[in-house]
Amino acid sequence: MPQLSSGGGDDLGANDEMISFKDEGEQEEKIQENAFTERDLADLKSSLVNESEINQSPSAAGRRGQQGEQRVFTDKHREHHDGVSKQQDGGMYKSPAYPGYPFLMLPDPYLPNSSVSPSSNKVSVVQQSHGMHPLTSLLPYSNDHFSPSPPHLPTDMSQKTGVHRQSQDISGYYSLPPGGVSQITPSMSWFPHSLMLGPSGVHPTGIPHPAIVPPTGKQEHEHYDRSMCMKPQVEVKREKEPKKPVIKKPLNAFMLYMKEMRAKVIAECTLKESAAINQILGRRWHALTREEQAKYYELARKERQLHMQLYPTWSARDNYEAGLSGVAGEKNKADWGKKKRRKREKQQDSNTDPGSPKKCRARFGLNQQTDWCGPCR
DNA sequence: AGGCCTTTGAAGGGG
DNA sequence: CCCCTTCAAAGGCCT
């Protein structure tokens, strides 16, 4: 757990990546991202096309309509920067320093809808229906945005403003299934919960936690849907079959960033396919300043810390077989085995491919990337 | 219905 | 220590 033992510098993680992006394309990327003009997407698209051509495997983005992607990219990143710098002054969790951070998420102050009319309407819609689950983004702050509370959530849950909440309250909000704690959505990031849990700190034994999901593999929305229009049979069945809850991995910095920015990107480029969106987000991630990334690394670090506190015995390894641990059927075991096999085969294929990045890296080393083939570079 | 795609980062295991 | 693999989120697409 290097992030825990190390200080701020290491918190930034992936230093090599950071360095490389700083060294290589910082200015270029900065210009791109700070401007966030249509060129950004156009560039991305072209690169995606190139990559897809090179790889002979059409990417999700390349495959499909890159129709309206570059429609509404405008210069709002500066606002982002400004907002961020202001927010950072306030301390980590006093204010929505991380607007998109799952639980602290507010209607994004530097969201394009504030300045860009074409997407203004979309954003709120998207935010609620996509990436940010209603509870995720709005619960702590407002019941206005999420008035119809789920039946199993007392209304005061959404009325409380986020911070002071006794653990008893929380456990009261979510009726815990006998098998464990799975009523809360994982993307309602559990980290801030811990801040609310207070010193009572009973979470290891029963605090509902978004990191815990039903072992069905399907999570949050579906689960909530079911909870809301709960069919007694289903519930009974679930109760009859107490399943080991799956504790999800804590989100890393990039994942946190993705959760925050996804809706924005969707609104801006009218894309919905996650694969394409994630490519954009990946680029934006690299274009972030070190300070901006640091926010997310710090958040991720705290997430991990809390996760460790909540689930000291949990190991990432546990979820390697999560698919079969919960549903615990022979079929699922078989499926999981198949899946792993497929992945392995795929990996082998890519390794046998002369253009495989790993191959070039292994052959020439990181210092001689000039010798790498195009795709590897 | 369920896997794939796509991204970065973390973690664990093997050599 | 380095490398590899898996998982985390997301949702449209594809089989």
From TrEMBL:
Subcellular location(s): the record lists:
Nucleus
Q: What keywords would UniProt list here?
A: Activator, DNA-binding, Nucleus, Repressor, Transcription, Transcription regulation, Wnt signaling pathway
Q: Which residue intervals are annotated with compositional bias (Gly residues) in the record? A: 1-11
Would the keyword Nucleus turn up in this protein's UniProt record?
A: yes
A molecular-function term among this protein's GO annotations = DNA-binding transcription factor activity, RNA polymerase II-specific
CDD domains, sorted: HMG-box_TCF7-like (cd21996)
According to the record, the residues making up region (Disordered) are 1-94, 331-363
Its transmembrane ranges are none
Query: Which family does the entry's similarity section mention?
Result: Belongs to the TCF/LEF family.
PANTHER family with a match to the protein in the record:
TRANSCRIPTION FACTOR 7, TRANSCRIPTION FACTOR 7 FAMILY MEMBER
Q: What is this protein called?
A: Transcription factor 7
State the gene name recorded for this protein.
Answer: TCF7
